[in-house]
Structure formats: structure tokens, C-alpha cells
Automatic annotation (TrEMBL):
Family listed: Belongs to the PrpD family.
Keyword Transcription: no
Name listed for the protein in its UniProt record: 2-methylcitrate dehydratase
Keywords: Lyase
Lineage: Eukaryota, Fungi, Dikarya, Ascomycota, Pezizomycotina
Domain MmgE/PrpD N-terminal positions: 81-338
Amino acid sequence: MSAVNRGLRQATKSLHTRLPQRISQRSALPLLSSTFKTAAPLTPAALHARRSNFSTMASLQSAATTAPSPAGHKGYDPEIQDIADYVHNKPIDSELAFDTARWVFLDTLGCGLEGLQFKECTKLLGPIVPGTVVPNGTKVPGTPYQLDPVNGAFNIGAMIRWLDYNDCWLAAEWGHPSDNLGAILAVADWITRTNKAGGNLAGGKIFTIRDVLEAMIKAHEIQGCLALLNSFNKVGLDHVVLVKVASTAVVSKMLGLNEKQTADAITQAWVDGQSLRTYRHTPNTMSRKSWAAGDACQRAVNLALKVLKGESGVPTVLSAPVWGFYDVLFKGKKFEFQRPYGSYVMENVLFKVSYPAEFHSQTAVEASEKIHAQLKAMGKSAADIKEITCRTHEACVRIIDKQFKPMDNFADRDHCIQYMCSVMLVFGRLTANDYVDGSEAATSPLVESLRKKIKCVEDPQFTADYHDPALRTISNGLTVELNDGTVLPEVVIEAPLGHRLRREEAKPVIMAKYKRHLEPHYSAEKVQELLEIGQNPKKLEAMEVDQYVDLYVSENSKFVN
């Protein structure tokens, strides 16, 4: 007998010797003490009944049959109940929300296709085991891949987010609600293909694009409303936690989970390990920031599928003392809410129309474009600039003000307001290729020297307007002083082209952006077909998801291996 086993037996023997004496000394446990009294022998039936009472499975089955719905379940955190109730019971009747969702849907798919042109993105895509094709699985647009819905959610989510060019939501927390499309489209496509092949997922549901748009509206709303007053970045957490929570909620409903099961899945998303923002900031800025949303999407689908198989939830995952989310990760603060869940976020979401640039810089880059034209008209150039003052808002200073920090890679450059403005001032353009190592912009001595001449200064009014629900502007103002002492008038832009206040102005540009992203992948005929469908709301919304996704399949893509 090993020393360990001898020790265990000794401890067990000692415990058995002391336990009755200790229990009898504790008046608080009279019922437990009574179990040590002599009892009559049990019949086989009684013995079976007693064992059943202590069976783990019997306890689970009993709980399953008696558990009330979230609305009457006192154990669930109300924040969890509210999300589950919204997903299952709130109809979306805003045509503005559906119309905006259609534009977001097309724009987001286009951004994903554009991401496929970058090898750093495509090297992460495809099946885990090369060559695997999942029958009736999720098809990944722009590729030949057909994957399980978990990996499909990662693939679609990663390519969408890669270039930081899809929509944006700015509040106490920042983020990109269309990231959720990675999970939504993957699950809708998989369920639809499976059911058409004779399966019975989600009651045999065949999803249409209208269903996808509704799921997007609700995912946008959950992520956006949680972000309005709650700053996750201030406690070091990345905003993709909200993608995971929102995707988990809507995907649960899509999978056919009931309201209680959806609440369970949401709690699993909150208890899941949350990403740190470390990979977004110097000195650790790197490409994980481009696939973090894809990771959130795959985690959401995976967690919802686990609940579908019978996994339970963690009812007080947020509020549990010591071990809950609030105490462990949110400095003991509870979430605050500005408004109930509806369709506000989709109706007011921001499009990245003009430049593939972090959104807090969009108006600064637009101002830089105007200044570039002004300098050209004066017979001058960026080389004549002595210094620039950028009047801006607090979030811009905290996230992308990197005046003297080294630009080591793509991830550094596309999150540095000084670099983005400098490229526009020097070249009169800003494209995704300008962030690539070794590119003309990345190796330009003039860009490097000019970015160190751009100083950001917070304007409290700009910050207030940024948080004002009636405005939500993202203002920047640039004042340029030239080497000869000339000071140009400040160029201020408050709302970027993709803002709600400029939505109609933006729509033709959004469609042109979508077309531009389609063209490297498909024939002129296919591009025209997709454009016509996208601009016909009734036809698009009525299409079954698998039929629409098939239009994007590229069996011989030149961008993926």
C-alpha cells in the first residue's frame, strides 16, 4: 500500500471515529444527527427510493421538471432575464431598423470579402483538419469552405472584422455590432441546410434573410445597450465580451432553445473567460484584435449548443458575492442602463464609409482630406507643415492617440490617429494597404515625421456631444500651422459620413463600397446579380439563407489556399 493510500485510510478512519461525536455537539444539525440512530432494515423498494433521492441525475431531472420560466425565476439576475425576455418576446416592428439592417448586412459581407485579400487573415481560416467538409455545414462566403457552425462562426466573424471596416457603436464602451453576423449567419445557414436535408433542428426551421436581419437587430441592441453606460475597457476588458453575450442570446433563440435555456446560455457567456484588451495597446498591439470577434462568435455558438444538449446555467453569474462578474471583473459595480431593449442601436449605428480607419479618427481623416486639397490649391504640401493640433474627444485620446509610439505593425498603424491623418495629408488617400508592413505609406519618412507633429487635445464639449443620446457625434477639428508661420483655419467635422445624421448621403457610397469589395472575387455578371438583389429589399428578405449564401461561394478562390 502506498504512503498516500495509507494516509487516506488513516484520515478516513479518524473521521469516522470523530464524526458522530462532533455532530452530536452541534445543535444546529439535529436532523443530520438523527441519521446515526439505529433504524429498522430497509426493504429493497425503500432502499431504491432512498438511493434515488440522493441520485445526481434524479436531482437534475427534478430540477428540470420544476424550474420556472425566467420571468418567475427569482434566482436569475434581472439583467439576464431582461435579455432572454427581449430575444423571445419583443417583436421588431421598425421598418427603419430593418432597412438599416439590410445596409449593414451587405456592407458587412463586403468587408469580409475584402478581408480575404490579406494572407494574415486567410491563414487562420478553413477547417481545423485540412480537407474536412461538413455535410450540410456552414458555407463561408468567398471561399470553398463548408464547416461546422462553431468554426464557421469563427471564419465569418474573423474575416468581417479583419480590416476594422464594418459598422461601429460608440458609447461608454466601443464596438462593432455587425461582428455578431459571424455567429448569426453561420447558425442560420447550418440549420437551414440540415433541415432541407431531412433534419429537425429548431423545429425544422428554414431561415430567410428577413430572419437574419431580425437577429442582427436584436444582437445590435443587446451589445449596444449594454455599451451605452458601461465601460468594459476601463477595467481592462475587450469589447468582444458583448459580441459573445449578444450572439449567444440570439443564436440560442435561433437554435430553438426556450426562454429559460436562453437565459442559461447567456449566463454561460458571462462566466466564460473574458478577453483582455492587451492585444490592442502598445507594446503588445497585434493581429489578435482582428480575430477576437471571430473568437467571440465561435464561443457564443459553442455555448448555446452545450445548453441545447442539456447544460444548465449560472443564474447569479453577475451578482454572486465574491465570485460573480461584478465583484471579480467589474470592481463591484452593477450594469447601468439608459433605455429598454428595442431597435435603437440598429437605427443609430455608424457606418464606416470612407476610410478603413478606427472610428474615432474618421472625422479627423475627413478633415485631413480637405486640408490636403487646400494645401494643393496653395501650391504647398504636407512637407510644409510645422505642426497640427487635433481638437478631439476623450475616447479618441485614450484609444488611438499614439503620437510618439512606434508603429511596429498593421495593428499599430490602423489604431493611430496621427498615422492615419498623416497618410491622408501626404498621399491624399487612406486604404487598408497603407497599413501593411513595407508599404509606401508605412516606409515613408514624411509620414513618420509628420505624425509626430500632430498633438491631440481633448475638448470637453466634443466629449459631451459624443455621449449625448440625441447627437452621438464623433467630432475632430484640425488646425495646421505651416513652416512660414501661416495658420490655416480650423477644419471641424462633427459627424462622419456614416452617421445617422448623414445616412442618406452615405447610402450611395455604402453601395459603391460593397460593389468594390465584390469585384475582386466574382465575375461582372455575379457582381451585378448581387447588387440587384441587395437593392431589392423584398426579394432579398424573402430569400432562404442557404440559397443566398450559395451566391457567395467561391470554389476556386485566388485568395485562399
